[in-house]
Specification:
The chain has 767 residues and is an alpha/beta fold. The structure holds ligand MGD (2 copies) and molybdenum atom.
C-alpha cells in the first residue's frame, strides 16, 4: 500500500506494513532524491516521541508557586488529557485576567511540518486570536535582516524578489559568469518549505557547467559550491563580504566602468553614496587595498573581478547566511547596488539571485509558480497589536519594558507571563542557549505542543503530545511549488498524540470560544473547504484542478503545464519604469534611502557601509578565541527535525556532531580527525568530533546546527555538538534586529575528561 504525503524535503509515497511505516518511495521526477527522506522511518521511535500529556512535577503540585528555574531539571508526570487541558486553560485564563493577553507570547517561530491545514503556527495564532490576542513575532530567523532591508531598497517583499530569481534557462543563454557569495550548497537545495515535486538542482547545475559558465565561489567553505562546476574559490574571511562588495563598487566607479544610463534611469542616491565610497567623508577610500586588509583577498584579485564583472555582466548569487550576521543588512543592500552599477537588474539570466540555492525553488523553479492564491487557515482578526522582532525573544523575557529600536519604530516589549509554542524548537534555533535558559526561567507558565521530546519540550511546564503528518490528513500545497499532493493518513497516531487542531479546539472549548475556533468543522471539512477555495481561485486564472474527491484519492500532480511563465517584477520595471515603478518612496532602486537616513541609526546609515565587527578574525576578541565558527544548515536533516533519524545519524560519528577544521588548525592544536574536542568561548562549550578538510579556510571551523541540545555533561557541558551554546545574542542592527547567530568566534581543545554520553535520544525522566 503506497500513501502520498509531503514534507519540507520533498513529496513521497509511503509504504506500510502491518500498520507501520516500512519504506519511503520517491516519484520518478525526483531525479536527485535526497537522503533526508529516510528520516521519516524514525517518525514513530518510542524513545523520542511524547506518548502522553506530561506536566513538570512542581508545576503540577502547584501551578501558582513553582520555580521556573527547575525547568529541564525536574521529572515529568504523565497525566490525562483532561487534566493537562484544564491546567493549560487555567494558565491562559490567569494571564488574561491578570496582566492581559499581551503577556502571552505566541510568536511560536518554527518550520513545523508541511501541510496546509495543520500548519502549527496558523493553528496557534488562530487559537490565540480567538481568546483575545497575544504578542506575536515579526520576520524569520532565516532572513530577518534581509526581510527588512530589501523592501526599503527594492520596494519588494523579500520572498517575492527571491522567488523571481534569474532562471537556469536564461542563464544558459545569456550568462558567462556567476559570482556566488556564500556558495550554492546542494545540501540546502534538498529543502523547500511546504513541499517539493522533485529535486533537480544538481542536474540543472550540471547543465550550466556543460554550457561553459564559470563560477566564483566566495565562501570560507569550498564545498559550498558543487565540485563539478568550473569555479575559482575565494576563501573569504567570514563576515567581511560587505568590504569586498564596497571595493568592487569602488573599482567600477573609479575606473568609470559602471552603467551610467541604468543608474540615471532606475536608481536614486548614488550621489549621496559616492562621498562615502571614495573616502571624501571619512578619509578612507573603500578601494581594493582597503578591502584586502579586511577580507584577506588580494587587492589585485578584487580589481580583476570588478573589471571582469563590468565586461561579462554576471549573475550574482547571495546566500541567506550573509545576512544572519552583525550588520547583515549591508550585504543585501550592497549586492543590489553592485548589480545597479552593472546595470543588470531585470536582465534575463543576470541581476541578483537573493538566497540562490538557499532552498530549492530559489533559482530552480524557473518562471512557473502557482499564479493563484493558495488558501490558508484564516488566523482571525488580531484583537491586539503587540509584536517583537522574532530573534529578540530572550531580550524581551529578560528586560520587559525596556524599549529598543526596530525599523524606524521603538518596540517596548511587554512582560511575558506565558509562552505557548507549537511547531518550533527555540532550543534549536535561538542563539546563546545559556542566556535563553536564564530568560526561560522568567514566565509563570510554558506550554509546548510537540511530537518529540525536543530540548524545548523538556523545558516546558505542560507538554501536549501531537501527531506528525503521517498520522493525520492534510493538503500538500504551497505557493512556492507547482506540485499538489494529498497527504493521507499513513499510520495511527503514536501513543495518545492528538492533532494541534484538536488540542486548540479543546482549549478553545474550555475558554468559551470553541465555535469561533472550529466553526463547527472537522479536519476533513476544513480540508474540503480550503481545497474548494483554492480550486475556485485557480479557475479564475484558467487553471483547472480536479474535484476534491478526485484529488484526495490520487497522488501528487502538477499544474506546471497550466501555469503561464511569469515576467519578473524587476523585468517589468526595467521595461517600463514609469508604468511599473518599484514600491520604494522614489519608485526606483534606492542606493541612498532617505527613509533609513531619517531613522538616524549609527549602525545603519542612509547608504550601505562597512561597520567593524565585534566577532571576526582579526578583531580584538580573536586574540582569545582565534577560530571563526560557521554554524550552517545540516546535511542530514532539516534543522533539528528527526535528529535521531537514519540520514541525520549518518552524518555523526559515535552519535555526536562533527566539527570540520583545516588540517593546519588541527595540527597546531595537536588534533586529528576522529578526536573528541571541546569547542568553547565565554558563552558556553560543547563537544564534537573532529573532521578535517582542506576545503575550509584556515582559521574557520564548521559545526552545523541541529544536534538536539544536550547539556548533560560535567557542569552542564553540552555533549552533542549544538553550536548555539556558542553563538551570540545580539540583533543585526537597529534596523532589522535579525539573528546574527550564523557564526561566532571560538577556540577548540582536546577533551580529556572521558567521553560523556549523549542522552537526548532517550526519554526524559517520567513518573
Ligand atoms: N547557530 C545558528 N542557529 C540557527 C541558524 C543558523 O544558521 N545558525 N539558522 C536559523 C534558521 S535559518 C532557522 S529557519 C531556524 C529553524 O528553527 P526551527 O524552525 O525552530 O527548527 P525545527 O527543527 O524545524 O523545529 C520545528 C519543530 O516543530 C516540531 N513539529 C513538526 N511538526 C509539527 C506539528 O505539526 N506540530 C507541532 N506542534 N510541532 C511540530 C518539530 O518536531 C520540531 O521540534 O534555526 C535558526 N538557528
Ligand atoms: N539540508 C538542509 N537544507 C536546508 C536547511 C536545513 O536545515 N537542512 N534549512 C533551510 C533553511 S530554513 C534556510 S534559512 C536555508 C539557509 O540557507 P543558507 O543561509 O544559504 O545556508 P547555510 O548552510 O546556513 O550557509 C551557507 C554557507 O554560507 C557560507 N557563509 C557563512 N558565513 C559567510 C560569510 O560571512 N561570507 C560568505 N561569503 N559566506 C559565508 C558558509 O560557508 C555556509 O556553508 O537553508 C535551507 N536548506
Ligand atoms: Mo531558515
Amino acid at each position: 500500500m503506497l500513501i502520498p504525503t509531503s514534507t519540507h524535503w520533498g513529496n513521497y509515497k509511503i509504504r506500510t506494513n502491518s500498520g507501520r511505516i516500512a519504506g519511503i518511495e520517491r516519484y520518478p521526477i525526483d531525479t536527485n532524491p535526497t537522503p533526508l527522506a529516510e528520516n521519516l522511518l524514525a517518525a514513530q521511535d518510542a524513545n523520542v516521541r511524547v506518548k502522553r500529556p506530561a506536566v513538570r512535577r512542581s508545576y503540577l503540585d502547584n501551578p501558582l508557586k513553582h520555580s521556573g528555574e527547575l525547568r529541564g531539571q525536574e521529572p515529568f508526570i504523565e497525566v490525562s488529557w483532561d487534566s493537562a487541558l484544564d491546567l493549560a486553560a487555567n494558565a491562559l485564563q490567569r494571564v488574561q485576567q491578570g496582566s492581559g493577553n499581551a503577556s502571552i507570547y505566541g510568536g511560536s517561530y518554527g518550520w513545523s511540518s508541511a501541510g496546509r491545514f495543520h500548519h502549527a503556527q496558523s493553528q496557534i495564532h488562530r487559537f490565540l486570536n480567538a481568546i483575545g490576542g497575544y504578542t506575536r513575532s515579526l520576520y524569520s530567523y532565516s532572513a530577518g535582516a534581509g526581510e527588512v532591508i530589501v523592501p526599503h531598497v527594492l520596494g519588494m517583499d523579500f520572498y517575492e524578489v527571491m522567488f523571481q530569481a534569474p532562471t537556469l534557462e536564461d542563464m544558459v543563454r545569456n550568462t558567462k559568469l556567476v559570482v556566488c557569495f556564500g556558495g550554492l550548497a546542494l545540501k540546502n537545495t534538498q529543502v523547500m518549505s511546504g513541499g517539493l515535486g522533485g529535486h533537480d538542482a544538481e542536474n540543472r547545475l550540471r547543465a550550466l557547467a556543460d554550457s561553459g559558465i564559470q563560477f566564483v565561489n566566495i565562501s570560507p567553505i569550498k564545498e559550498d559550491l558543487p565540485a563539478f562546476l568550473d569555479s575559482q574559490w575565494w576563501p573569504i574571511k567570514p563576515c567581511s563580504d560587505a568590504a569586498l562588495m564596497l571595493a568592487l563598487a569602488h573599482t567600477l566607479v573609479d575606473e568609470d566602468l559602471y552603467d551610467h544610463a541604468f543608474v540615471d534611469q532606475y536608481t536614486v542616491g548614488l550621489d549621496e553614496f559616492l562621498p562615502y565610497l571614495t573616502g571624501q567623508t571619512d578619509g578612507l577610500a573603500k578601494d581594493c587595498e582597503w578591502a584586502a586588509r579586511i577580507c584577506q583577498i588580494p587587492a589585485g584579485h578584487i580589481r580583476q573581478l570588478a573589471r571582469r564583472m563590468a565586461v561579462e555582466l554576471p549573475m550574482i548569487g547571495i546566500s541567506w547566511s550573509l545576512q544572519r550576521s552583525e550588520h547583515g543588512e549591508q550585504t543585501y543592500w550592497l549586492v543590489t547596488v553592485l548589480a545597479a552599477l552593472l546595470g543588470t537588474h531585470g536582465l534575463p539570466g543576470k541581476g541578483v539571485s537573493y538566497g540562490y540555492g538557499s532552498i530549492h525553488n530559489i533559482g530552480f523553479a524557473g518562471r512557473k509558480l502557482p499564479n493563484f492564491p493558495i488558501a490558508a487557515l484564516p488566523q482571525g482578526k488580531r484583537p491586539i497589536n503587540s509584536y517583537i522582532p522574532v530573534a529578540r525573544i530572550a531580550d524581551v523575557l529578560l528586560a520587559p519594558g525596556v524599549p529598543f529600536a526596530f525599523n524606524g519604530e521603538v518596540v517596548t516589549p511587554p512582560k511575558i507571563d506565558l509562552i505557548y509554542w507549537a511547531g518550533g524548537n527555540p532550543y534549536h534555533h535561538h542563539q546563546d542557549l545559556n542566556r535563553l535558559t536564564r530568560a526561560w526561567f522568567v514566565p509563570a507558565s510554558i506550554i509546548v505542543n510537540e511530537p518529540f521530546w525536543t530540548a524545548t519540550a523538556r523545558r516546558a511546564d505542560i507538554v501536549f503530545p501531537v501527531t506528525v503528518p503521517l498520522e493525520r490528513e492534510d493538503l500538500g500545497i504551497t505557493p512556492y511549488d507547482c506540485h499538489l499532493t494529498p497527504m493521507r493518513q499513513v499510520v495511527q497516531p503514536f501513543g495518545e498524540a492528538r492533532d494541534d487542531y484538536q488540542v486548540f479546539a479543546s482549549l478553545a472549548e474550555r475558554l468559551g470560544v470553541k465555535h469561533k475556533f472550529t466553526e463547527g468543522r472537522s479536519v476533513r471539512d476544513w480540508l474540503q473547504a480550503l481545497y474548494q477555495q483554492l480550486r475556485s481561485s485557480a479557475k479564475q486564472k484558467d487553471v483547472l484542478l480536479p474535484s476534491f474527491d478526485e484529488f484526495w484519492s490520487g497522488e501528487q500532480f502538477s499544474v506546471t503545464e497550466q501555469v503561464p511563465e511569469c515576467e519578473f517584477r524587476l523585468e517589468r520595471f526595467r521595461r517600463d519604469p514609469k508604468a511599473f515603478p518599484l514600491a520604494t518612496p522614489s519608485g526606483k532602486i534606492e542606493i541612498f534611502s532617505r527613509t533609513i537616513a531619517k531613522f538616524d541609526y549609527l549602525d545603519c546609515l542612509g547608504h550601505p557601509a562597512w561597520y567593524d565587527k565585534t566577532e571576526m578574525l582579526g578583531s580584538p576578541r580573536s586574540d582569545t578565541f582565534p577560530l571563526h565558527l560557521i554554524s550552517n544548515q545540516p546535511r542530514g536533516r532539516l534543522h533539528s527535525q528527526y535528529d535521531h533519524g537514519p540520514a541525520s545519524m549518518a552524518t555523526k560519528v559515535a552519535g555526536r556532531e562533527q566539527v570540520c577544521m583545516h588540517p593546519k588548525d588541527a595540527l597546531s592544536r595537536g588534533l586529528e580527525a576522529g578526536d573528541l574536542v571541546r569547542i568553547y568561548n565565554d558563552r558556553g562549550a560543547c563537544l564534537a568530533i573532529v573532521r578535517t578538510s582542506i576545503g575550509i579556510r584556515t582559521g574557520v571551523v564548521e559545526l552545523p546546527t541541529g544536534a538536539w541540545y544536550d547539556p548533560s555533561g560535567p557542569d552542564g557541558l553540552e555533549v552533542h555538538g549544538n553550536p548555539n551554546v556558542l553563538t551570540r545574542d545580539i540583533g543585526s542592527s537597529s534596523l532589522g534586529q535579525g539573528t546574527t547567530a550564523h557564526s561566532c568566534l571560538v577556540e577548540i581543545e582536546r577533551y580529556t575528561d572521558g567521553s560523556p554520553p549523549v542522552t537526548v535520544r532517550m526519554p526524559p525522566e517520567l513518573q
